[in-house]
């Protein structure tokens, strides 16, 4: 019943149907479509035979090649580690001095350390490791827990005030908030602390007030920050005489520090970074410190 | 609009609105302590406005019987306008979030204005708001013409159109308030999902009823696609959204599936939302508007069959290509990859069928920007499906996944294919619907076309670049055998491309605004003289006219 | 074949049934076996469930759309394992209704974030990311620290989660709101119950730095700090990978 007609442009017949003026040509499917279809089906069949593919109730076909992503990636990571061993072995076994003296090794340390540091540490210590409010600079000032490589490596391993069982613990007490010192004492010691780093006191402190501040410092603070205020590496107490501050060196910040106390939290990296990676980071930081 | 409804139909509409008001009230009261209540209030408010509008018209006389001799196009007209409104809104938000990635502080400290909340407003706004309304509107138009049958009644299409838009509004306002279940393209919460099921079932029945009234013995290809779109989306939607609400007074629900099963269900849904919403539906559109506008017969009926069933079968296997190398068992990834590769054949067969249909009409493609929109759409359809099949190959996906390359692919499909075919269809149908000879300004269609093409190309090239650079930076090793770049370095490298993308998006948005103006002016043009006598029918001369119901 | 179709396309219902039939196959073959093949989800006998506070935090993570930029799925690829840690296992998201694997990494993967940074850092970062990472393009979420957490109905949340398969006990459900408070107020009497019910290793801390007030920030940070730590099933293979 359908009336077929021939399309003058292509020469093909129509199907004879018409929907609101739309007609269809009954053009045979071009060969290319079949070729293409067969090619993709062949590819599919081959791939399915070779790889894990078909579910069978409680299991699935494993494929002739016996490949498995999880095994593959584990192998890839191991192979890569083995390939890197040419230099990582030497870092693992060598002393810090020896590695630092080896330009080729240090090149790898710098390359690797930069990415490791930026992916893991930079959010706190800054891309340039110069720190930020609440996070110490790792390239200037005297390190809280000692400046030798082993101390730094240990800090990275266990963290500070972290969840690691051997974590370093450092706490600056809340002298004001916890009522250890009266407001007047705090003001006095604040002025004294400012003078330690050669800054002018906040107010025109009288010599008596400064002396009182010094006395309070001697009574309350030296146990951690030392006689001269230069800090104690075994307690993680910072040097108050240099111009490097974690929480800011202006009067307001120092007042807040003394009043509320501080307890910075540096995570432990033992579970997250391998020993080599941590050693690389230590070397990287020692190196940054040398050439800021 | 309402004037066309019979008294009876107006009463039915009123009953539906009252039921809706009651529903809104129940939600408001039940959810008074949660965001569900806010949505209840919204529903109530909309229903009350509707009730007032409807009661005011109850006394109007019944419309003339001769309305039954013509197709029922009012819902299509309204649907097209709503679609353009969503287009502007969705594209605007898209461009806004594009700028947010350049200037992250543009959030005014407000929760609703942050990237994570606005992003689904964009995706739902363009896909469901713009795309969905265009699909519903054109499906009403197409099914009537290709069946030579009027829609079976005058209330159901409005219910579908407005009910669907209520869903869209609940979805978008929900995201702004933080109501989302986080499943991409299925973000709305349980109550919106339930509502959509109701609307969708009615839509399906409406379609089926119209098909069964047809006076053509054969069902035209466009309707196969529209049917597949309606049916499969229903299945996907219901399965992927299975969830247990915290309580009937809470907006929050917990997905029935978890972990790996949830991931597979979600991407079975997600990928086929692409397939049956963004592809099948719009192929339906293409199969009607392109041959009519070109005045050419479809190149090959047999290719239509091959591609339709190929798409319907293969697509449903491909979802796992969104989960390559993840914790999804590898055997599923194998199936997802291989079926995605086979999928290219029917996809290209469709694109080829469309392009070959233009043979004999290339002069029109050159001169007519509306047809050129459809031509470019078919080209981008071919391009993005090729790209998709390519990205589905595991080795390629290991690079492209998680990067802007995916976003580039999405927008090659979304801007180049979905939006272009829609603009083409809208420019074709607006003069037909409003009984004009042509659009208000052919020049402005031309301007829109070039803005859209330029915007798309800038967007897609920017994202290809950024995506590939990003993917490479993440996996580049230095000569010590360790990772060469940190994540942050890759982020910094993205900035120029993000700026380019935002500019491309702006051009695309400008084009849509030009289109709105043009459509508005077309509607306002004096109806053509012969309009009343003449059927508002498309170019194809000698098209059979609707006959009075038998 | 074309002849058959010629007849099929004249029957609306036939077409409908054919579409449903043809389109159902793929999903059935790929999804159903995920429930029956045992290897799909690994065993992790010691895995714990999310605490109520972490559930609340997870819901905030969903609400704010963090998943739009962050993945929680480390793929089995060398560079991902070397950058982010051991590849993710299916079991790790066993209690995730829905999963939050993500599809885009505008920000880094955070599947193994728990314990990587301090609470204080998270708070500062969430309030304004550019205060701590100047290159960041992540939005700030300052209101989280200002907004009290709605914790009264957490019991209902746990109950709903139990209905979809998470093994919460009656006791956990009953004490949900209290536990949420206790987990962020280590010195309060409510803290003890949290470790009793969820294990000694549970983080009980004033996550937002203020134990006196339970905020959305507490919840979100508590959630971020547990990412990748519900079970150690995944860290075992990597120990061998590193050697
Ligand atoms: C003015 C034009 C547009 C601009 C500027 C734009 C911008 C964006 C941006 C910035 C994103 C987020 C990407 C990311 O997270 O990195 C996005 C995502 C998306 N957009 Fe658009 N968009 C536009 C038009 C459209 C259109 C017309 C559609 C669909 C019809 C669309 C569909 C989507 C989808 C599906 C996603 C999610 C992609 C994914 O998750 O991978 N967009 N868009
Ligand atoms: C043969 C056809 C196609 C195939 C095989 C395909 C394949 C893919 C693949 C492999 C991805 C990336 C998944 C990932 O790595 O996360 C993807 C993403 C996507 N594609 Fe396609 N694609 C096809 C056609 C299309 C078309 C025509 C559109 C229309 C707009 C489209 C829209 C999308 C969207 C929106 C996403 C993003 C999903 C997400 O949120 O992550 N695709 N597609
Ligand atoms: Ca996505
Ligand atoms: Ca708190
Ligand atoms: Cu897909």
Which residue ranges of chain A are poorly predicted, with pLDDT under 50 across at least 5 consecutive positions?
A: none
What percentage of amino acids of chain A are in beta strands? Answer: under 5%
In quaternary terms, these chains amount to: heterotrimer
Strand order of the largest sheet of chain A: 1-2
Q: Quick one: biggest sheet of chain A? A: 2 strands, antiparallel
By CATH, the topology of the largest domain in chain A is: Cytochrome Bc1 Complex, Chain D, domain 2
Overall body shape of chain A: elongated
CATH homologous superfamily caption of the largest domain in chain A: Cytochrome c-like domain
Order of helices and strands of chain B: HHHHHHHEEHHHHHHHHH
Structural domains of chain A: how many = 3
- Extended strand count of chain B: 2
Describe this structure in words.
The complex is a heterotrimer of chains A (292), B (550) and C (243). Chain A is mainly alpha-helical. Chain A folds into three domains: 14-60, no CATH class; 72-161 and 267-290, Cytochrome Bc1 Complex, Chain D, domain 2 (Orthogonal Bundle), CATH 1.10.760.10; 183-260, Cytochrome Bc1 Complex, Chain D, domain 2. Helices cover 48% and strands 5% of the residues of chain A. Chain A contains ten helices and four strands. Chain A has helices at 31-50, 69-93, 96-100, 103-120, 122-125, 149-158, 183-196, 207-225, 251-260, 275-290, and strands spanning 14-19, 22-25, 55-56, 59-60. In chain A, the strands form two sheets. Chain A has a two-stranded antiparallel ribbon with strand order 1-2. In chain A, strands 3-4 form a two-stranded antiparallel ribbon. Chain B has a two-stranded antiparallel sheet with strand order 1-2. Chain C has 13 helices and no strands. By secondary structure, chain C is mainly alpha-helical. Chain C has two domains: 2-40; 52-242, Cytochrome Bc1 Complex, Chain D, domain 2 (Orthogonal Bundle), CATH 1.10.760.10. Chain C starts with a helix and ends with a helix. Chain C has helices at residues 2-8, 12-36, 52-63, 78-84, 119-127, 129-132, 143-146, 154-163, 170-174, 176-183, 191-198, 216-224, 235-242. The radius of gyration of chain C is 22 Å and the shape is globular. Mean pLDDT of chain C is 94; it is low at 238-243. In chain C, 48% of the residues lie in helices and 0% in strands. Classes of the chains: A mainly alpha (292), B mainly alpha (550), C mainly alpha (243). Chains B and C meet through α4, α6, α7, β1 and β2 of B and α1, α2, α3, α4 and α8 of C. One protoporphyrin IX containing FE (HEM) sits between chains B (91, 94-95, 97-98, 119, 122-123, 126-127, 131, 184, 406-407, 410-411, 414-415, 418-419, 505, 508-509) and C (68, 103-104, 106).
